[in-house]
C-alpha cells in the first residue's frame, strides 16, 4: 500500500537552469541523488515527456541494493519536472509521484519537492532523511561557479 508523502523547500545559490539540468543529467543524478552511504547506477535515462529512467542504489557497506524506475510525466524547462517512481521489489508496491518546482528568486532558485505515494514499508522519516542528504549533495554540485 502506498501512503506516505514528503515535502521539501530549499533555496539554492544558483540558477534554475543548473538545478533543472542536475535532475535530468545521468552523471549528475548518480553524484547527488543517493543518500549518504549509497552509490547509484543510472542504467537508462530518456529525459523527455513519456521517456523513462531506471537506476539502482547500493548500500556501500553491505553491497545490497534496490532498483527502481519510472516515467517523465511533465517537463517545463527550468520550471517543473514531474515523474513517477516504482520499485522493482514487490515488497515495496505502488507508484510514487514526484513534482519538482523551480522558481528564480533574488538570491538563486527556490526549489520545492513533493513526493507522494511512498510505500507503507518505508518510514516517512527515513524518506525525509534521505532527501535531506540528497539535497545537501545537490547544493554542493550546483552552487559552485568553477571557471574552466
Outline the secondary-structure elements:
Layout: E1 2-12, H1 16-24, H2 26-32, E2 38-45, E3 52-59, E4 65-76, E5 80-87, E6 96-105, E7 108-119, H3 124-142
Antiparallel strand pairs: 1-7, 2-3, 3-4, 4-5, 5-6, 6-7
Helix pairs in contact: 1-2
Task: Describe this structure as you would to a colleague.
InterPro entries: ASHA1/2-like_C (IPR013538), START-like_dom_sf (IPR023393). Belongs to the AHA1 family. The chain is an alpha+beta fold and 148 residues long. The protein has a single domain (2-142), classed as START domain (Alpha-D-Glucose-1,6-Bisphosphate, Chain A, domain 4, 2-Layer Sandwich). Helix content is 24%, strand content 47%. It is built from three helices and seven strands. The protein has helices spanning 16-24, 26-32, 124-142, and strands at 2-12, 38-45, 52-59, 65-76, 80-87, 96-105, 108-119. It has a seven-stranded antiparallel sheet with strand order 1-7-6-5-4-3-2, covered by helices on one side. A hairpin with a 2-residue loop joins strand 6 and strand 7. The longest helix is centred in the last third of the chain and has 19 residues, at 124-142. The chain is globular, with a radius of gyration of 15 Å.
CATH fold category name:
Alpha-D-Glucose-1,6-Bisphosphate, Chain A, domain 4
The CATH homologous superfamily corresponds to START domain
Helix content: 10-25%
Head-to-tail CA distance between termini: 49 Å
Widest β-sheet, arrangement of strands: 1-7-6-5-4-3-2
Mean pLDDT value: 96
What's the number of structural domains? Answer: 1
- Ranges where pLDDT stays below 50 over 5 or more residues in a row are none
Work out the helix count: 3
Largest sheet: 7 strands, antiparallel
Roughly what fraction of the amino acids lie in strands? Answer: over 45%
Shape: globular
Amino acid at each position: 500500500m502506498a501512503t506516505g508523502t514528503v515535502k521539501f523547500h530549499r533555496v539554492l545559490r544558483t540558477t534554475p537552469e543548473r538545478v533543472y539540468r542536475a535532475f535530468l543529467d545521468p552523471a549528475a543524478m548518480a553524484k547527488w541523488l543517493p543518500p549518504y552511504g549509497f552509490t547509484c547506477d543510472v542504467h537508462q535515462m530518456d529525459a523527455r515527456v513519456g521517456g523513462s529512467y531506471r537506476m539502482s542504489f547500493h548500500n556501500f557497506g553491505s553491497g545490497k541494493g534496490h532498483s527502481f524506475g519510472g516515467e517523465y510525466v511533465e517537463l517545463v524547462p527550468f520550471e517543473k519536472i514531474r515523474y513517477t517512481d516504482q520499485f522493482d521489489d514487490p515488497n515495496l508496491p505502488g507508484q510514487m509521484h514526484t513534482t519538482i518546482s523551480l522558481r528564480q528568486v533574488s538570491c538563486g532558485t527556490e526549489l520545492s519537492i513533493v513526493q507522494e505515494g511512498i510505500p507503507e514499508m518505508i518510514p516517512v522519516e527515513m524518506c525525509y532523511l534521505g532527501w535531506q542528504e540528497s539535497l545537501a549533495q545537490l547544493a554542493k554540485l550546483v552552487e559552485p561557479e568553477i571557471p574552466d
